[in-house]
Amino acid sequence: MALDEKHKRARMMMMWFGIISMGMMFAGLTSAYVVSKNRPDWLTDYQLPDVFIWSTVVIFISSITFHLTKKFTAEGDMKKANVAIVTTFILGVLFIVMQFIGFNEIVEAGYYFTGSASSITMSFVYLLVLAHVVHVVAGLIVLLVVIYNHFKKKYSKGNMLGLRLGVTFWHFVDGLWLYLFLFLYFFR
């Protein structure tokens, strides 16, 4: 079933409304972080685990492979598109695994999200990172739908709306992580 241009524009617009809403949520959370930074109990001596640096590289590469999926599909090179889209999924899962390794390293360093040993600083770090992980999981669900449709051969040069929507959302989630990582890394 081919969509007319009106329906394609409506679907793109709905995705952009969602992206803007998510961006506003994270802007609010990072603003709250900035305001809370003036508290006397704010931690400034914590170090983000190095695995967060590597997970940033992983998610950046996943954006490239998802973009290549779109490029190869538009060119009709389905073998390369297949490799690129599966690689994107694997990298997305690896990113989440690395985030939880990072959480574990934070706990091992003595920083907790809740309880008497927690701090407002670490609560914000956990909240920001976990909220992003939830969005990456949503991205993986979107990616699974795209993979399903891709292997059912529903995308072609003239019919790429679902793939374009998935790639755009994935790029947003990746860019969001880059923003959060740099924010948490440099703004203490």
From TrEMBL:
<keyword id="KW-0472">Membrane</keyword>
<feature type="transmembrane region" description="Helical">
    <location>
        <begin position="51"/>
        <end position="69"/>
    </location>
</feature>
<keyword id="KW-1003">Cell membrane</keyword>
<feature type="domain" description="Heme-copper oxidase subunit III family profile">
    <location>
        <begin position="15"/>
        <end position="188"/>
    </location>
</feature>
<dbReference type="InterPro" id="IPR000298">
    <property type="entry name" value="Cyt_c_oxidase-like_su3"/>
</dbReference>
<dbReference type="InterPro" id="IPR013833">
    <property type="entry name" value="Cyt_c_oxidase_su3_a-hlx"/>
</dbReference>
<feature type="transmembrane region" description="Helical">
    <location>
        <begin position="12"/>
        <end position="35"/>
    </location>
</feature>
<comment type="similarity">
    <text>Belongs to the cytochrome c oxidase subunit 3 family.</text>
</comment>
<dbReference type="InterPro" id="IPR024791">
    <property type="entry name" value="Cyt_c/ubiquinol_Oxase_su3"/>
</dbReference>
<dbReference type="InterPro" id="IPR035973">
    <property type="entry name" value="Cyt_c_oxidase_su3-like_sf"/>
</dbReference>
<feature type="transmembrane region" description="Helical">
    <location>
        <begin position="81"/>
        <end position="103"/>
    </location>
</feature>
<dbReference type="Pfam" id="PF00510">
    <property type="entry name" value="COX3"/>
</dbReference>
<protein>
    <submittedName>
        <fullName>Heme-copper oxidase subunit III</fullName>
    </submittedName>
</protein>
<keyword id="KW-0812">Transmembrane</keyword>
<keyword id="KW-1133">Transmembrane helix</keyword>
<feature type="transmembrane region" description="Helical">
    <location>
        <begin position="123"/>
        <end position="148"/>
    </location>
</feature>
<feature type="transmembrane region" description="Helical">
    <location>
        <begin position="169"/>
        <end position="187"/>
    </location>
</feature>
